[in-house]
Amino acid sequence: MAIKHTFTSEVEDGADETLVRPVDWNADHEGTATPDAHAASHTDGSDDIQSATDSQKGLATAAQITKLDGIIAGANKFTPISVATYLWRGVTGACDSSFEALIAGNPTATSVVYDNDVRELSLPEITYQPQWGKVILHNITRGNSRKITGTTLDTNTITTESSEDDWADTDVITIGSQTCSLIATYTYSRFFDIDISPNVPATATAVLADIFNDEESGASTGLQNCFGCHPFETYGVSKFPRQYAAAAYQSASCAIVIPVVSQKICIAVGAIRSVNASGMYAYISLRGYWE
Question: Which residue of 93, 122, 235, 257 is most buried, as measured by CB atoms within 10 A?
Answer without folding.
Answer: 122
